[in-house]
Amino acid sequence: MLKRYSYAIVKKMTNSFAHVLGHGGFGTVYKGKLPDGNQDVAVKVLKDSKGNGDEFINEVASMSRTSHVNIVSLLGFCYEGNKRAIIYEFMPNGSLDKFISQNMSAKRDWEKLYDIALGVSRGLEYLHNRCVSRIVHFDIKPQNILMDKDLCPKISDFGLAKLCKNKESIISMLDARGTAGYIAPEVFSKNFGGVSHKSDVYSYGMVVLEMIGARNREKIEYSGSNNSSMYFPDWIYKDFERGDIMTIFGDQITTEEEKIANKMVLVGLWCIQTNPSHRPAMIKVIEMLEGSIEALQVPPKPLLGLPTMVPETVEDSNETSFSNPSQLERGNLSAPEDTLQFFNKEFQKPDKGSQSISKSFSTKVSRES
């Protein structure tokens, strides 16, 4: 049963908030221990939470009913006046971004990267389709994927978009350079379609591409040239078309590892299709990852050059950029009620004339002898 703690107990748990684990758009996370001292926990102290106490407690109770090996477990909460916090199980290996950076400095463990990608896909599919209150995450990124002692990935921060003011939740998804990062294009402009669980699929695809080293190369190139700030899936796709995949993966890769890496590239590129309806649902992503690599085809080239500006907000608006809940695929998914509004600037309309590449994967990526 979900346990409620007083703010005084939360303060004691965290030794007066002495050990900061991280900062995010929703608040600050501290390391602590449950009152009995037998279990380490992560305590997220929320900032700018919205709604009255009953709404907050109901949302937290809904979040606590999630139960999946790839979802961080919720252990308790605090609601005392304007002080609100959520207590999670502690993940000793930190977040995926830390694992990625460590993995890039040595020979990559492709099997582990694949297992992580598969685990995250299963967790997202559960949130979208199988938990008691279906949830769209809206902030899938490496920092919100945590690793337990066995490097099993667990999605965190699910459901928080409904508890916090959405200005922070959207802006926190932007990269330091102000690039689109992990945000699906439809979040910026209705011209790309309605926001739904397919927006999480896009973010997942960007995470997978980062896992294989795409962002690592982008950062190197960006630091060495003023003209190399292109949207990074552009050169991934071009390398893939040319069969120049070693540029992405590096030279020290076995045949089996190359198959895993190629599969992850294909899945990532399918997930970041500009049109949400062209992205696979997470159940299909799982099938693609678990299935035969020869069955996969190279996806159409995603629209490139997404907006690099921070979107402008519309204050005190009752409008919403979300599709009507009845239009969301696979049922009524939970979504923030007061989503951050953007002016509908004509960033760049989707290219309706883009055509799928029909050549099969096995033909496209065969290594030269």
TrEMBL record:
Positions contributing to ATP binding: K44
Membrane-topology annotation of the record: Single-pass type I membrane protein
Pfam families (UniProt xref): PK_Tyr_Ser-Thr
Any one Gene Ontology molecular-function term assigned to this protein's record: ATP binding
Localization annotation: Membrane
Biased composition (Polar residues): 319-329, 353-369
Keywords: ATP-binding, Glycoprotein, Kinase, Membrane, Nucleotide-binding, Serine/threonine-protein kinase, Signal, Transferase, Transmembrane, Transmembrane helix
TM helices/strands, residue ranges: none
Any one GO cellular component localisation term in the record: membrane
Sequence segments annotated as region (Disordered): 314-369
Gene3D superfamilies for this protein: Phosphorylase Kinase, domain 1, Transferase(Phosphotransferase) domain 1
Name the record gives this protein: Protein kinase domain-containing protein
